[in-house]
Amino acid sequence: MTELSKLAITTVDQQVSVSGQITPDDVAVLVEQGVEVLVCNRPDNESSDQPSYSIIAAAAAKHGVHMVNIPFAGGQMQAEHTQAFADIVASGKRIHAYCRTGNRSSTLYTAVNSIKK
Question: Would you list the domain boundaries of the chain?
Answer without folding.
Answer: 10-116
